[in-house]
Prior knowledge:
Layout: H1 2-6, H2 8-28, H3 33-48, H4 53-57, H5 60-75, H6 83-106, H7 113-137, H8 156-175, H9 179-195, H10 199-217, H11 219-235, H12 237-240, H13 248-257, H14 259-277, H15 312-341, H16 346-363, H17 372-393, H18 406-416
Amino acid sequence: MPAVSRARPAFELGLGLCVFLFLPLSALFSRGLAPLIAVAGLFGFGLAAPGGVATWRRVRMPALLFAALLSWGLVSLFWAVDPQRSLVMAARLLGLFAAGLALVAAAPELAAPRRLLAWFGAGLVLALVLTVVQFATRGALTDPFLRQVFVEPRLNQVENGFVLLLLPLTATLALRRHVALATVLAALTVAVVFRLVGDAAWDALLAGIAGAVAIYLWRRWIARVAAVFAAIVVLLAPVIFPMLIRVDAVAGRAETIKFSLWHRLEIWSFVGAYIARRPLLGWGLDSSRAIPGGSALTPEGVPWLPLHPHNVALQIWLELGLPGAALFALFIARLWLALGAAPWPRLYAAAAGGSLVSACVVALGSYGLWQEWWIGSEFLTLFLILVMARLAGEPARRRSRISLSPSLERGAARSRR
């Protein structure tokens, strides 16, 4: 495709603009991340398309898992609480997954990864400034344009973006001998994250740092254990999380620390009871918003199920039952195994693993599984991690290689030939 090949510089420029906007948009209007991932996916497709079949083999396994999950979601329309909502969500997910996979396939095709990293670094600095201004002025930058009154938790989205990318960016800069720059950016980012109100992001960052240290010391062993552990957590979620409210030490601490933490326990208890009613089939794709009794009020006067369970493992069980949970568990396990096999420098692999730990912590206590802005954030984060992996490996060897698994690595090598 000669015309597509000639457009490569334009596609790379488009991707650079997208990664520049990623975190600033998270700080100002996180819902804009859904169209941003769609645009980025188009640029990624244009960049990856000339590579032919070999390029798309890199994403064959995740594509099959996503296709199976979407197919089961469509089947669930037959018993879904709100079939129309389920159908609309399936269409949205199809577009989001296609865009995300196009980005993953495009990561090895970038001719100028350092330029893209510069775009992202500029966006990070701008996002830090915007976040501080928004926090200090209580939303002065967006209040004139939005109907909703600014509340501090609205900055949780950008806060989590900082957390997921902090370790990989710091490791990349350090490996490229930009230690002073890495130190300054890390210090500023940690200071902003610490000042904001999102406890989940701070917990995720601490867990990510601890995970990165363990992965640095025992990467392959930790990756295998984490793959098994993550799959077990997903598969046993209906047993583990709903019972926490009945553990006196956990419930007592939740009541004294923060009401939102106690409410999480109430939500999980409610969701556990509804999973038990339909453990095999679930209630249908994106049916969390319409579960019978979900809008009823707890003794504290808040809904039993506000929009979603705030736990991705419970949500997949609630909506898609055992088949959906099994597919999701397989996907998470393969991510961990791919991390263990990736041909990345030791420090960078540890940083990427820390980011994965942070993502898992956030996913088990914060957002809905199908929130478009969150899916867009995850795919853009993965794309940046794969691009930075190339740069992190350059000081050690001239030809850097990145992949999600050994089979993906072989496909990348064939496409370069």
